[in-house]
Amino acid sequence: MITEQGVIDRISGRKATVRIQKSSACSSCESRDSCDVHGGKPMEIEVNNRLQAAEGDQVEVSIPSGTFVILSLYVYFIPVVALIAGAYVGGTLLAPGLALGETPCSIVLGFLAMGVTFLLLRRFDKTPGANRKYRPRMTRIVTRFKP
Q: Structure pTM?
């Protein structure tokens, strides 16, 4: 289970927006240079407020390790496979049929396939079932805010 702690910025209905500062795990991450969290800006995520936490409370947010691996697979591996498959199809099947060069057809179809894959993944992300299954969960209230 991957856990982080953050502070609730705002409550909207049954949802809470949690501000999470980068953790010590970020310093050893291979992708830290391309990550928005590494810039020092806190990351904001929206979670169900099933624990009835209030604004200012420090909470623990977690996501199961298996879910994290699956999401990483969706975001990194599937688009790369689509890029390679599109490039192969473009160069071997499409180019001879259109009497065009293999390289331009490979490039265009590869990037087109990858773009379509990102759009499909984004649409999948907006389905209610996907959101519930792959969203981080508020697991406990660490400290209550005292005004």
A: 0.61
Same domain, 8 and 58: yes
How far from chain centre, in Å, is Cα 76?
Answer: 10
Residue 37, Ramachandran bin (φ over 0: left; ψ between -120 and 50: alpha; else beta) = alpha
* Average pLDDT score over residue span 11-38: 70
Q: Please give the tally of structural domains in the chain.
A: 2
Q: What's the whole-number average pLDDT of the chain? A: 83
Single-letter amino acid, residue 99: A
Say whether both 85 and 38 belong to one domain: no
Strand-by-strand arrangement of the 2-12 sheet: 43-48, 15-20, 2-12, 58-63, 137-143
